[in-house]
Design brief:
Order of helices and strands of chain B: EHEHEHEHEHEHEHHEEEEEEEHHE
Number of domains of chain B: 2
Strand order of the largest sheet of chain B: 12-11-7-10-9-8-15
Number of helices of chain B: 10
Strand content of chain A: 25-35%
Largest interface: A-B, 37 and 35 residues
CATH superfamily of the largest domain in chain A: Dihydrodipicolinate Reductase, domain 2
Oligomer: heterodimer
Distance between the termini of chain B: 50 Å
CATH superfamily of the largest domain in chain B: Dihydrodipicolinate Reductase, domain 2
Shape of chain A: globular
Number of strands of chain A: 15
Distance between the termini of chain A: 37 Å
Number of domains of chain A: 2
Radius of gyration of chain B: 20 Å
Helix content of chain B: 25-40%
CATH class of the largest domain in chain A: Alpha Beta
Strand order of the largest sheet of chain A: 12-11-7-10-9-8-15
CATH class of the largest domain in chain B: Alpha Beta
Largest sheet of chain A: 7 strands, mixed
Structural class of chain B: alpha/beta
CATH topology of the largest domain in chain A: Dihydrodipicolinate Reductase, domain 2
Chain lengths: 322, 334
């Protein structure tokens, strides 16, 4: 059994704590956070808490550090953990800067440690089914991929989300899910073009992007953060022989409609994608399983997201260096 | 009574929409489809026989003989100008299938021919007549989602057959075929023109060996900063449950609306076909388009969808090709 420590004990760490429990294997026994209230919360959940990552690494020497920090703090935490000899689970995106992402992947390789980034679509049953069908040749040669992702704005209680410099906005934080999945399916990207609207008054952060791949295939991305927009995703892959399409809104197993006007669609499964992801990550650490995502892929997703964000800022086509 | 009927000529059945338009006209008691022109004698005479109309392989002669009130032009894109100029010369109003033409020069020539003749030239953009699309426009104009900011749009389809795949007759593939519907609806809803277009265009990407563009992702910026993408790809395989789609997901500063213009359908699984199909139950937008055009002819104008709107939509498609050639955004007007 691996020993695990959280770097950061905020919202995502609490989600992942519950997912570790649902996965049924090793559970985190340490947590590092600068906030005393969060340290108290971690202690209450049965973990030993530290005021800094460095202190946790030195005193607890966890086998795995699970990085659940705001994006701008990922890189130093990942680097410190790898240098201390720990494997790393890191929430997506790996970091905001493509060069730094490549350096972290290289550091993990040179230290012989796993750097597993939480690109969770790879663990969603519908996306996995789509990918398997595609790899089975069901659509033939791929041509056009389309991805949509709409979700409610992160709450103001997590202010770093509202600062582009800290989280990268809707492209680096949200669209990157679909970027990673498109890269997984379509291979090396060639260039990006994008436009983005940020409306501070309403909180809308909306981006439309295209990627062209070296194979000639292309992908379209739509990502939206807005108040009360609800959660919705779609992914479609058209090839020269067929088409695959998944949609979070189609035929939900459960639709709950409350009399106050709110409605909710659900598709329950025995294990959440997050639990499946952690189960797999632990399988890689404890049993040497082949990772379903490697650090180079995570770095490439950062490079593509950065190119998209740059294109949106500059209004130009941005060539992606791979 | 029959002498009081409007007389209509179908100018070619090259575009399959001609069948639908002819049926919609034939259903009206105040219209008589009296003539069919087609340079394909077999296709034209078969259609004429079904409609009980005269057939001719020469449009100017047919117009001169029958002296119709209006014509519906459904020839190949590159033949629109020839047929439209024949109508204008004969003093006949015309409804022209989209795109208005395959070049801006042709489109401008058509516009000025009808201006000189004092006749109506209207463009067949049936999507404007879809009740969900019309309702979307009302909601946007009423400010329901506040200031419109951006939209993600599609007009997918299956790969069409025949002359659509011959660039000399069509002007191009999926991009010229499918850009114009959504481009027109966006211009119509926003009352704004496009100012910049970037496009990724794919040749033979979905249909190996096609030798023509069959995939397109357009990024279009409008006056005032509104931006949109339009996916024009012929990406619906033969086994897709319907011909294609028109979707517009539009975001404003107070809300968002998701439009799927053909969502009004029933799933139909047919073991004989070996596939599932969607059967539409919404209004027939072609019939609404034809009715509005006939109304305009009776009123003596103006054109319900002015030719300039056809030209402006075509310009966005042509800018997409230019952008793909340059791998850079292209400013409009061209």
């Amino acid at each position: 059994m691996a020993t695990i420590g959280f770097a950061g004990y905020g919202f995502m760490a609490r989600v992942r704590r519950d997912a570790y429990a649902a996965a049924g294997g090793s559970r985190p026994s340490f947590a590092a956070d600068t906030d005393p209230a969060r340290r108290a919360e971690a202690e209450a959940a049965g973990m030993k808490a530290f005021a800094s990552i460095e202190e946790m690494l030195e005193r607890a020497r966890p086998d795995v550090v699970d990085v659940c920090l705001p994006t701008h703090l990922h890189a130093p935490a990942v680097r410190a953990s790898l240098e201390a000899g720990a494997h790393v689970f890191c929430e997506k995106p790996l970091c905001a800067d493509p060069a730094e992402a490549r350096a972290l992947a290289a550091l993990a390789a040179s230290r012989g440690r796993l750097l597993l980034v939480g690109h969770i679509l790879r663990f969603f049953p519908d996306y996995r089914t789509l990918l398997n069908s595609y790899r089975n040749g069901d659509v033939g040669s791929p041509g056009v991929a389309r991805a949509r992702r709409l979700t409610n704005r992160p709450p103001d209680s997590r202010p770093w989300y509202c600062d582009d410099a800290l989280c990268g906005g809707v492209i680096l934080d949200l669209m990157i899910h679909d970027i990673d999945f498109a890269l997984l399916a379509l291979g090396a990207p060639e260039r990006a073009f994008a436009r983005r609207a940020c409306d501070p008054a309403s909180g809308l952060d909306f981006a439309l992007a295209t990627l062209r791949f070296k194979s000639g295939a292309m992908a379209h991305f739509e990502a939206c953060w807005a108040a009360n927009i609800g959660f919705r995703y779609e992914f479609e892959l058209a090839g020269d022989r067929g088409l695959l399409h998944i949609d979070s809104a189609s035929k939900p197993a459960l639709k709950t409609s409350l009399y106050d006007g709110c409605s909710r669609l659900e598709n329950p499964t025995t294990k959440s994608p997050m639990a499946l992801q952690l189960e797999h990550f632990l399988d890689c650490v404890e049993n040497g399983a082949e990772p379903l995502i490697n650090a180079d892929e995570a770095a490439l997703a950062v490079a593509a997201a950065d190119a998209i964000a740059r294109s949106a800022r500059e209004g130009k086509v941005v060539v992606i260096e791979t | 009574m029959s002498s009081l009927k409007l007389k209509a000529v179908m100018a070619s059945f090259a575009h399959p929409h001609a069948n639908s338009y002819a049926n919609c006209l034939a259903r009206r008691e105040d219209v008589s489809v009296c003539g069919v022109y087609d340079d394909d004698a077999q296709r034209g005479s078969a259609a004429a026989e079904k409609l009980g109309a005269a057939y001719d392989d020469n449009l100017p002669e047919l117009l001169d003989r029958l002296k119709p009130d209006f014509a519906v032009i459904c020839s190949e894109n590159a033949a629109h100008r020839r047929d439209a100029e024949a109508c204008a010369a004969a003093g006949v109003h015309a409804l022209c299938e989209k795109p208005i033409a395959h070049t801006l020069a042709d489109a401008r020539a058509m516009m000025s021919a009808f201006e000189r003749a004092g006749r109506i030239l209207s463009i067949a953009f049936p999507v404007r007549y879809s009740p969900p699309v019309a309702r979307l426009r009302e909601k946007i104009m009423a400010g329901e989602i506040g200031r419109p900011i951006a939209a993600s749009c599609t007009n997918h389809g299956r790969m069409p057959p025949g002359w659509f795949l011959d660039a000399a007759q069509s002007g191009g593939g999926a991009v010229i075929d499918h850009t114009v519907h959504v481009a027109d609806v966006l211009r119509w809803i926003l009352a704004a023109d496009a100012v910049e277009v970037f496009a990724e265009v794919g040749n033979s990407l979905l249909h190996s060996g096609l030798g023509l563009d069959d995939a397109g992702l357009l990024s279009v910026k409008f006056e005032g900063g509104f931006f949109a993408t339009i996916d024009t790809s012929w990406s619906r395989p033969k086994s897709f449950p319907t011909w294609g789609d028109v979707t517009i997901n539009i975001f404003g500063d107070a809300g968002a609306i998701e439009l799927d213009a053909f969502a009004q359908n029933a799933l139909c699984c047919d073991d004989r076909a070996g596939m599932a199909v969607w059967k539409g139950w919404g209004d027939n937008m072609d019939a609404l388009l034809i009715d509005d055009f006939v109304r305009a002819v009776l009123a003596g104008g103006p054109a319900p969808v002015p030719a300039i709107d056809g030209l402006k939509a075509l310009e966005i498609a042509l800018a997409a090709y230019e952008s793909a050639r340059r791998v850079a955004p292209v400013s409009l007007p061209l």
